[in-house]
Design a protein that fits this description.
With 144 residues, the protein is an alpha/beta fold. Helix content is 35%, strand content 20%.
Amino acid sequence: MAAIRSDDPARPVATLRQRPDYLRAASARRKGMPGFLLQARARGTAEPAPAELIRVGFTCSKKLGDAVARNRAKRRLRDIARAVLPAAGRPGWDYVLVGRPEATVTRDFADLSADLEAALAVIHDLEILPYRPRGKDKKAKTKT
């Protein structure tokens, strides 16, 4: 697992590489911001990743544009993660930053960094609830 450069060696940050890790993060907490969507989850103790490790992944769909635009958006997301996650991220958590069309590439870097700090604060303040699959509520209708 490759690590992205971190100024704080006590809080290492690694990059997510496996699709199941992205899927687990997508089914957990999320916070939409003007420049990106943050998906986050606390890893379980049974997972093979070290508990002190912060892991982050990046994704940009074709809605962002051509390959040049997607790569630029991912570069910007990597830079804000490198600047913010070692200080504001929590060890034992996985984060996925999802780029937004036009906003990720055009938004000011300082605003993107502030967005990530604010999103992390909201995500970490949420109460940890057990996993509940999304979908329609299948309650039986009763006649009264």
